[in-house]
Amino acid sequence: MVSSDQRRRQLAREKFERQQRRREEMRRKARRRNAVVAAALAVVLAAGGAVYASVQLTGPERDSVDAASEPSAVPSSGAPTPSASPEPSMAVDAKAAYTMTLKTNVGDLTITMDAAKTPRTVNSFKHLADKKYFDGTKCHRLTTQGIFVLQCGDPEGSGMGGPGYNIPDENLASLGKAGADGKVTFKAGTVAMANTGSPNSGGSQFFLVYQDTELPPQYTPFGTLDAAGLKAVRDVAKAGVEGGAPDGAPKKPVTVEKATVSKK
């Protein structure tokens, strides 16, 4: 007789294996595409021309690690859709404010969350923090061009991890009306949910905005980073990305040593 816990672990393993196969296939395709582009580029450069290329990543198949060459790529995650396990039952006071404290190797990041505006998001973070889900995880992605965010919350550190369930979008109206380009401003200090690009596909990954950033209004803003935390993230951003790219693992690693969520 297989227990529900064993079944969840089995589903998680199967999901991970599917993701690994998908990512490897994406990498193979990217290598083939890059080879073709490189050959074309060599021809153009030989003729004295200049080439400018842009790639837009869309859909739930994108991988934030493979997106490292695209500085304007949006915060994305590989959380599974549909959910493999149920969203946790509500256990927070939907009228209260909560504080999430991330103790990291670069200092404490303190995030104020309003459960009245984002009850299911706050509830999920409380649930995960209580289970030590974030403890020992790395902030896997820093973006320093196009958008200005540090992305965290993936226990795999690959940009594809998630808790096995999805939570709905919340509080999007607070972002205001999108401009002609379809974007709104996420102010510095905003903490918002990453997703797969599809509605209601948030999992555990989130991003910290360290400089005003223009994004589509589809990422749940659920918290505000305190001044000390914002400074710490900006210091990480100043150090840049590994290898000098505009998007990828931060050169100054950030590890969440312990995460706690408490009612204010």
From TrEMBL:
Keywords: Isomerase
Biased composition range(s): Basic and acidic residues: 1-27
Domain PPIase cyclophilin-type: 104-261
Keyword Isomerase: yes
Region annotation (Disordered) ranges: 1-32, 62-91, 240-264
Positions with biased composition (Low complexity): 71-91
InterPro entries given in the database record: Cyclophilin-like_dom_sf, Cyclophilin-type_PPIase_dom, Cyclophilin_A-like
Isomerase among keywords: yes
SUPFAM superfamilies linked: Cyclophilin-like
GO molecular function per UniProt: peptidyl-prolyl cis-trans isomerase activity
One Pfam family matching this protein: Pro_isomerase
Function: PPIases accelerate the folding of proteins. It catalyzes the cis-trans isomerization of proline imidic peptide bonds in oligopeptides.
Name the UniProt record assigns to this protein: Peptidylprolyl isomerase
Native source species: Streptomyces thermolilacinus SPC6
